[in-house]
Amino acid sequence: MFKPVSSSRSWILIWLLALAVLAGCGASNPHPAGSYERGVFFAEQGKETEAVAALEAYVRHNPTDSLAAEAQYLKAMTYLEMEEYPLAAVEFQILRKDYPISPRVEDAYFHEGEAYLRQVGRIERDVTGAHEARLHYLRFTEEYPTSEYLPQIIEYMQDISDLMVRKRLEQIKVFGQLRRYEAVAITLDTVMEEERGSRLLDEVIMQRAKVAERLDDPDTAARMYEKLIAEYPDSPMIKKARRNLRKLDEADEELEDEDL
Question: Can you give the pTM of this predicted structure?
């Protein structure tokens, strides 16, 4: 048979219900729709989709407000956090175009490059994003030669250069399998010229020396080994370079003795 709830238990249930309601209110956004603060609140709570929608609404209805550029910037940064890199790049471009005197322009310019760079996937994938990031950061350094972002940009440029070198090294493996050693040599020469900032150049130089030996070009091989030894004394390939250079010198001495 149904029993009525006692008065004391009723008050306990009402109190618990009130706490639940208050907790729900605390979790919801306390700021009015269409406000900048609403977008900021969502972003801080990690509700990225809601943050983008709220900031978009604010910018659309308040394009000339003093906080519009900041809202546009936060929207772009939220897309970056969401790994929506093409969208983030576009939003940073919009900020630079629509709010050219905003103090956020330099920040947007820098992070736009990050959006391009992060689109790059594994080595076998398209590296168009890396090319775009490189050109973007070259323009950036021309416009902001004293920027606080320069150390990070230098590191990014090295990362891009390393990526390009790895891509070309994969390419020469195919050339090598086809015994197209002239193509390997030309490719490596191009890499040494174009990717001087790479941290992988010691490997490129070693490969160039080895292919020179395959092409029966000991002078170029020796020059490459000497270059590696002189410019990359901490390279893990330094011992091998010295050993191979000694072999070339010994072979050269033997030829001289035969001539005598």
Answer: 0.77
